[in-house]
């Protein structure tokens, strides 16, 4: 049976909530985020702000230069979470197969649904109407036979859009897409692909396998499947947490090696505390460094599962030595843990088990 998957994405979520609650902001270029004087970044931008080139994740100082009339609102995440809960209650009233990606977007498998509605388009229209009636906000939705296509479709006609890719239209739709529409292809990867003459989605299909692998490594087979519109991932309502991380942007660039080490060590210990509260362990430690020119690098190291704070600190500091953090001013630092496991995932016969058991 062909699946009917919907990807729902709230429109400019944080900014739209603020405009809803403060009528004087409607029609104004609004962003939610930090101060331009303390290296804040844009968390969300209204569509009025986007006409000036303001986008999420850019520095707030740059956003103000692009749009001097910008209205900056400090984020209120408790309010956004409350609205998100209302939206997800609507989703779950339609189907139990809801996979949340963030506060403001989710996949829904509506192949079977509480309305016994056979058309995914109709289900999406009703969901959008319920969101509008309940929250006063708009959402965009994409309907397709799989998650990859549904997510692309939801962004096709924002805001308040609805795009349906019926099975018989999949090939026609794929012909319209650039290579960076592929899942996991960001600007850097897209540039590497284009250097090799792979600029359109269809080019991935006919690309030389060696060139494709040189550009994207082990993701080559995955991207090739997506280029054919193939994505068999199910909608997983209980997506496991796969990582935890901490990061901080500093008001002034860090140049003191001792301070940089202390910051990374503190974040590594935060990650260990987070694991301890959940009785999990982690195999991989990752650090992130962003220099004053916004160049960002990550380094990671994998070993036996643990949640020993000092082991994380030692590994994070060793990774720091593989960067230029002590030679270049640092704007942002981060540390995280990945490849999480619970005790049930480790065989009792594993020779490391007595040590792991002693951690908690």
Outline the secondary-structure elements:
Elements: E1 5-10, H1 13-21, E2 30-33, E3 42-45, H2 47-50, H3 60-66, E4 71-73, H4 77-94, E5 98-102, E6 105-109, H5 120-135, E7 139-144, H6 147-154, E8 162-164, H7 170-174, H8 187-195, H9 201-206, H10 209-216, H11 220-227, E9 243-254, H12 257-278, E10 280-291, E11 296-306, H13 309-320, E12 330-342, H14 353-357
Parallel strand pairs: 2-4, 7-8
Antiparallel strand pairs: 1-6, 1-7, 2-3, 5-6, 9-12, 10-11, 10-12
Helix pairs in contact: 4-5, 12-13
Concise description?
The chain has 360 residues and is of the alpha+beta class. The chain has 14 helices and twelve strands.
Characterization of this structure:
With 360 residues, this protein is an alpha+beta fold. The protein is 38% helix and 23% strand. The chain has 14 helices and twelve strands. The chain has helices spanning 13-21, 47-50, 60-66, 77-94, 120-135, 147-154, 170-174, 187-195, 201-206, 209-216, 220-227, 257-278, 309-320, 353-357; strands spanning 5-10, 30-33, 42-45, 71-73, 98-102, 105-109, 139-144, 162-164, 243-254, 280-291, 296-306, 330-342. The strands form three sheets. Strands 5-6-1-7-8 form a five-stranded mixed β-sheet. The termini are far apart.
